[in-house]
Amino acid sequence: MTSAPEIPRSATDVLNRVFGYAAFRGEQREIIEHVIAGGDALVLMPTGGGKSLCYQIPALVRDGVAVVISPLIALMQDQVDALRTLGVRAGFLNSTQDLTERRRVEQAFVAGELDLLYVAPEGLGVPATQRLLDRGRIALFAIDEAHCVSQWGHDFRPDYLNLSMLHERWPDVPRIALTATATSATHGEIAERLDLTGARHFTASFDRPNIQYRIVAKNEPRRQLLDLLRTEHPGDAGIVYCLSRASVEKTAEFLVQNGIPALPYHAGLDARVRAANQSRFLREDGLVMVATIAFGMGIDKPDVRFVAHLDLPKSVEGYYQETGRAGRDGLPSTAWLAYGLQDVVQQRKMIETSEGDFAHRRNLAKHLDAMLALCETVQCRRGQLLAYFGQTGAAACGNCDTCLNPPESWDGTVPAQKLLSTVLRLQRERGQKFGAGQSIDILLGKTTEKVTQFRHHELSVFGIGTELREAEWRGVVRQLLAQGLLAVEGDYGTLVLTDESGSVLRKEHQVMLRREPERAARAPRARTGKAAPAADLPAEAAPVFERLRAWRAAAAKEAGVPAYVVFHDATLRQIATQRPGSLAELSTVNGVGQSKLDKFGEQVLAALQEV
Q1: Which residues of 4-15 are buried (b: 16+ CB within 10 A; e: fewer)?
Q2: Nearest CA to 186 among 159, 142, 148, 158?
Q3: What residues does the HRDC domain cover (predicted)?
Q4: Which residues face 488 on adjacent strands?
């Protein structure tokens, strides 16, 4: 009779034997040991930084079951499958289960036969769920995606407001709240609303050095996107974000027509279609998901090589959260945004017409101003992004578009005065308001039908702006809107002056503008500087890697799980490079824990023999 295997009890043992990693990263060890000891923690750590281990390891070390509160009902099954592949006893309770399945999980929880139990935040408000938790032994509470509690944030979920009850009802159970994004204001709000002001706060660096940030001027954005995918990301998995459902549908259709496998995802689709498309994206290689921001939170696909935005995000926090879904495996990835005048007009108009009081609209405007400043900067984008989250980076990162192809700034005071004078004269002399296009036509001296109809050729400003091209004037309008020196109002986005416009017209305010590079240089794929990701495979390892990927695809299909649940690309790359010849050698590879070694070890060695 064989004895039961020794149960690992230390954090390092669990890291090595269950998860297959040799060492902790950053503050992981300190966070994990703090929670194991019974302390509360609030953890701010970027996507791909290893947040999940910060509660999964304490769950396996402490007595009882860790209860994980997650808003990601559609992804709970995948999260549980990934843990079970590691040999971890995990289950979930949510509204998708039938009564039989729910009772089976509840019985396993009460009997202590689970290590982790995932529940949705709305489920915790149900008295029956609270009574169930009272019957079991709780090791800890993990509140994932904790930024959802922030009413000023980009992804507010009302059910999160009730989670302060965890400490009231179970005061002796440690809590850990985790998020991949938070400004100091959001950070403080999370702590207050979750009753974690007395917790230890851990803030990792928000820098994702493997992600290359690029923002380009819009010029047929779908064509620009297609060029990006064909030239830099052929066959890669990625996410394309659009503001509207209609744009999602049209963009996905455009990509498919041009030979790029793409799927749509938005709240207007049938729930079964959404679930099927999400499942395909997670399980198949090389698919592009075109989506509204309804998609993405909790997506654990490590090999997303690019995130593209065809519309301006509403906030830097939202932009950071969305771009952070690229390159979770640490390999080079692209965050690409196409941005133009109409984005600014549209976002300003949405704020003006939004529901809510003045304070709410002012907060929305503040978020947008920060996003516009990131788009218009002539400085390092990564540095500005980090500064937004209260962190400092190098003066120049060497891996964003403004570092690789620096734009110029120029004195745009005179053009700004000409444009503002045009808006002023239209309003004062004619009692009229128009959008950007009419003002630019007047400045360029164009005798259009509308110019003639309204006799705008009689204005003293007609034809005084021929020193700039139409595209350059659109850039002037965009940047004046971004700087608050011009505003839009009404359903038609007409231009109006602001309180600050007068200082420009009176020559009291110098207006510095960004001049776009004539042709944006295509950025190199390699990352220079600190924390470089894994280098490209040696030539002799490439066919081995592809053979391992083919084996992994078959193994994942048989198990009914996404490929990355079997092994991440980074693990396969290491196996392909080292070519281990025994199970003992394979066990030293990062990401190969004991359970995966037992399940897949012989198959991996056999696949290596075939190359």
Answers
A1: eeeebeebeebb
A2: 148
A3: 538-611
A4: 495
Dist CA 574 CA 533 (whole Å)? 13
CA dihedral of 89, 572, 145, 26, whole degrees rounded to 10: 100
Q: Is the pTM of this model over 0.90?
A: no
Residue 174 structure tokens: 């440690």
Provide the β-strand partners of residue 91. 117
What CA–CA distance (Å, rounded) separates 251 from 224? Answer: 12
Give the whole-angstrom CA distance, residue 354 versus residue 384.
28
CA–CA–CA angle 233, 301, 256 (5° rounding): 45
Q: What pLDDT is stored for residue 142 in this prediction?
A: 97
Strand order of the sheet with strand 65-69? 90-93, 116-119, 65-69, 138-143, 175-179, 41-44, 200-203
How far apart CA 388 and CA 382 sit, in angstroms, is 10
Say which DSSP state 400 is in. Answer: B
| Residue indicated by tokens 């004195």 | 411
Residue 6: pLDDT over 50? no
Question: 147: which 2 tokens?
Answer: 């930024």
**Six-digit token string for 320:** 């950071």
Query: The tokens of 3 are what?
Result: 């004895």
Q: How many angstroms separate the Cα of 587 from the Cα of each of 17, 157, 532, 602?
A: 9, 42, 25, 12
Q: What is the largest CA-CA distance in the chain?
A: 101
Mean pLDDT check: name the lowest of 6-15, 109-118, 525-534: 525-534
| 471 phi/psi in degrees, rounded to 5 | -60, -35
What does residue 351 show for φ and ψ, rounded to 5 degrees?
Answer: -65, -45
Question: Mind listing the domains of the chain with CATH numbers?
Answer: 11-203 (3.40.50.300), 211-339+377-407 (3.40.50.300), 410-515 (1.10.10.10), 539-609 (1.10.150.80)
Residue type, 89: R
Residue where the block lists tokens 């000891």: 37
Q: At which residue do the structure tokens 């003992």 appear?
A: 584
Residue 455 has pLDDT above 60, yes or no: yes
Extract the tokens encoding 590.
């990062």
pLDDT-wise least confident of 81-85, 113-117, 285-289, 357-361? 357-361
